[in-house]
Design goal:
Number of domains: 1
Oligomer: single chain
Number of strands: 0
Shape: extended
Amino acid sequence: MVVLLLTVSALVQAVIAINKVRQAIAYVPIAGMKSYPVATAIAVLLAIVIIALAGYALLDFAGMSAWAQDNPGKAVGIAFACMWILMLSQVPLAAVTG
């Protein structure tokens, strides 16, 4: 039963994410609207780092798991920093998407 609920919630989140990406691609900026290229660059850079870490985890999960067990403070710090920056980057996104 838990697996079924997780599957349904994952599918709902995937549909929401696809719709948001579609809206972001179709977005037309308003004339005179302020842009924040530094914030965008930070969010894109962090996304690249997270995708690279996810790829590394897929390729060498045992190695990443061993590193996390040897360095729990660093692993938690990296996870916290990633979540904090991603949450911070959503503030301008929330203003744009409503």
